[in-house]
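In response to reviewer comment 3 from the previous cycle, which asked for concrete evidence that the modeling workflow produces usable outputs, we include below a single protein chain processed end to end. The sequence was submitted unchanged, and the resulting structure tokens are shown without manual editing.
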Amino acid sequence: MKSSKIRNKLPVGVSLGLVIVGAALVIWFWPFSDLPFRIEGFATEKQTTFVSFDSTDPLSQKISTEDSTSSASIGKKQVANDAESLKSQLLRNLLPESQTNSLKQGAAATLPPDFPKIAVTDWRIQLVGPDHKLAHEMDESQLTEISSSERLDKRVADSFADLTQGAADAGVTIAVVSAYRSVADQTAVFNEKFERMKRQGKSDEEAERETMTDMTRPGYSEHHTGLAVDVVDESWLASDPAWTLEESYGATKGGQWLAAHVADYGFVIRYPADKTAITKISYEPWRLRYVGKDVAKYMNAHGLCLEEFVAEAEKWEQYGN
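The workflow returned the following structure tokens.
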């Protein structure tokens, strides 16, 4: 009886020993296992590895022959599809969405039929303003007088003369207030207004901000180009306005004629009322800027300021149109 009991207990001990040994082996070899070990509450990061392979590789052939019947039916075609899908996913991850959309738009972009044929570097659309400094001062021998002490680029003079004649025919006698200005002249004008604001009790910061609402720093003024001119008309001057250059001029007969007709002569109202956020200059119904007839017509038709037109020109030039 005693030996019988001993024989019954031995299997239990052996079993327990085997369980302990088995557990130890699992713990020992677990780090080398490829099996996933998921623990609830811990995030697992999925990583995708891209492997380049040749579809005729012997290893790929061996794997395909060892697959199940259903897997074999998919074969290399499925692998190729998966690879293409992964490639597309990789490209989407590498390129920002905005850049991807831009490329798509660029590929489908079509040059508007009425867009002027003009290079971004053309002298007529050179951009000078609060965000665009003059590249270099023009040679003053290129200027010609358009009124007493006021000058414009020689290439613009005839167009301006035609404009003043057209205005006169409509009963509007143009008076030139200011045209070409050197950097030195702009410095004097800028400082004069700044000091005037200071005398009104404004701080330096306030005076500078007020000065720049309708004027740019020396080197950033469009007057440096010889393509810009400030005009009003004799009737406005006869009304003895508080300031010669006021926004209210735009509502007068002369201001309305300018807005409606200057494009016919290659000019635009440089600082429209609805574009101040772009131009950084307040509404100036008196500021004319020569850009050429084709450009002026396009800008008017599409409601663009010069900054917007130049941006379009750069876009089409980039697309090779």
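The CA atoms of residues 225 and 260 lie 24 Å apart. We consider this sufficient to address the reviewer's concern, and the full set will be provided in the supplementary archive.
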